[in-house]
Amino acid sequence: MELNLASEVLSAYGFTKEDTTITQIGTGLINRTYLLTPLAGQDKFILQNINSSVFKSPWIIANNLKAISAYLSLHDPDYLFIKPLPTTGGMQMAHINEEFWRLLPFVPNTISLDVLSTPKQAFEAAKQFGKLSRLLDDFDTKSLQATIPGFHDLALRYAQFAKALAKAPEFVKVQAEKQIEDALNHKHILDYYISYSHRNDFPDRVMHHDTKISNVLLDEKTFDGVCVIDLDTIMPGKFISDIGDMMRTYLCAFSENETDLSLIKIRIPYFEAMIKGYLSEMKSILTATEKELILFSGRYIIYMQALRFLTDFLNGNMYYPVNHVAQNLDRAKNQFKLLQEIAINEKELQDIIAENLN
Q: What integer pLDDT is reported at residue 2 of this predicted model?
């Protein structure tokens, strides 16, 4: 953080450079995050810069969180909802030099993980994401706006892929021939979703939309779930967004950057723990259609992410940062392999879902 900017940002929250220490923390790729420690007093804070190139209208985030916080304060006042603290002028964010900043309370004795290492962690994380959506079951989703329009819109992502494919140079398409074939052959996932999308019992819900393990705080000793964090993408959506993203990021021991595809396997104990945790909160409110689409949720999100990586490769790597020119193609290969693993293990996975729905 630049020194002159730090002074203005800190001043907006009643601090100075002289009475605080600031340390950059976190591994997130979107927002810059800092731990702010006042030299006097016990409370620490999280200071965060909102990436306005990703979140085009940061005030939408602030307004969404304000509305949700007010609802939870009224209906579930004991729930720990990490809402931004006001500036000295009573604003929800500080807007300084064309950048948006917010201050959040630091939750002591908690940790956030970058990698899952036990099924219990998967259970606790899934339970926390499910709990937030359950508590907001009666919340009016129409009062929220999309912070990233079309974020989990598979029809949009497929259209972007088709456009990129039409414009890509021939030598690029030759490189990606197998993955292009995979993308076209799996279009039935989009068609299947569309066939369900207008059902009356497939409602919009308040979803987190980014359910990776690092977006949950766990007790640093017991690893029990404490609360959900990083709420920028909380907005109306279908339940498949959260459970699907958990499947994509929890079930394999390796991320989308792994190039040895033989390592891309589903960890059944992690799947079982995740399903148990999520359904322990959500089973009572899920509709018949939603219950039918639980495993499909994984297919939907994994296919969408494969399309996004492939589209970026065809477009010349304009969105996702890469270390080499074919990295997004490698990421697409990885996700298509994970999609294949869902199909290979389908019966066992469906049996686990059925057992936890009973």
A: 47
